[in-house]
Design a protein that fits this description.
By secondary structure, the chain is α/β, with parallel strands linked by helices. Helix content is about 40%, strand content about 20%. The chain contains 18 helices and 18 strands. Helix 3 packs parallel to helix 5 and helix 14 crosses helix 15. The radius of gyration is 25 Å and the shape is globular. The relative contact order is 0.10.
Length: about 500
Amino acid sequence: MESLKLRRVAIDTYKENVVFLHRDCELYRSEGFQALNKIEIHAEGADELVIAVLNVVDDERITTPAELGLSEQVFAQLGKAEGTAVYVNHATSPESLASVRAKIAGSHLEYDEILAITRDIAANRYSKIEITAFLVACSVTGLEREEIVSLTRAMVATGERLDWGESLVVDKHCIGGIPGNRTSLLITPIVAAHGLLMPKTSSRAITSPAGSADTMEVFARVELGIDRLREIVKHERACLAWGGTARLAPVDDILISVERPLGMDSPGQMIASILSKKVAAGASHLLIDIPVGPTAKVRKRSEAMKLRKLFEYAGDLLGLHLEVVISDGKQPIGRGIGPVLEARDVMLVLENDPLAPMDLREKSLQLAGRILEFDADVRGGQGYFVARDILESGRALDKFKHIIKAQGASPKCVVSGRLTEDILAPASGRIAAIDNLQMARIARLAGAPMDKGAGIDLYKKLGEEVRASEPIYRIYSEFNADFEFARQAAEIDNGYRIEKDET
């Protein structure tokens, strides 16, 4: 078969292998290639072929008829210089797609079938359409308990796994759904200051205005390789990093990249996602936070108990000492929603500032206390007081500063968005309800988390009195289009329910 010259096309296709072929290329015509076909690419001197989705172009500035253009991800995976001779052919479908079709039909999948799917996803043999089919099948037909454990194990098996050489390695995770809930950035330095090992790897936001990694990135670099992670944790007893660059359960990051635009977060997939990252990061003891509220991800306590049992079942089979806390999810935690505003709240708590949001402080101390009680030297019921002493003494703030320095302070000073709008109370009364989903939606429309300065600053929380036309929160945005989207959404539904004064 005739060869083509490799050409690097500077396009980031974000976790999907995409290549570009000119419409006038002789191979395009003779081999019957079509747009969105998957093709195999083999380079001279390469041991393995690469599979990618084909895009067809008409502009020779992108690629000429004698070239094959590679997006950034494919170029990095192939590992060959521009101009290298490459050969292309129609790709055969991964055998594991038969298991995806079986899952769509409602079948139970065994571990070997799920492992084959995850290996093919990790090797970029699946298009995003095929990954979406797998995710939708897992969501609609549901994952049985054994399938959740199998998916967790399979995602761990397709990436790196850390071993810290210690019997007690702690971690914490919240299932999400509550804006502003940045307890991890407070718990980690408290626990590390006590001396426990807590290598905290977090995800970026899926459907929320910020994940822990997004907020931590306001302070420090979070994209750290495994060797750097090991060095930081060795010296500081903790880190606050994004798990993606460390290749910890990398299939999970690929699945999340598809889930994010779809707004998907099914229970089985969520449990496998959380536990695979924790097992890969070397955790032995894990605390799970499940907030419950009318507009939280989990609406009823009965649903939380069911989820708790699934976590405990999977954790037991995976060798994790796992405890679950069911917390109050009726409203956002803290005042800020969005990376910069949440970062501000974190620092106010660490600095023991009287203006610090007390709900964020109290929840962080309660959860940190539970984790400290994993330590045999901390008596049951005393963890909260140990955590409080560490915070009030300034030791947690010192540890947080050391973690920032070790990871590398953020090169950019990010501030709140320049465009602001105060949303006013339509009537006088008492704040009776705050819609978590709507507040998160408005903050995302404002630009969070991609624009770290975007978000919402809450002035009023549940139970507080408000006067008509008094500000209840402020929207921050950087770009006019985002600002208008957020303003319009707040005008239609500001997310607050006010019980009017009877007088």
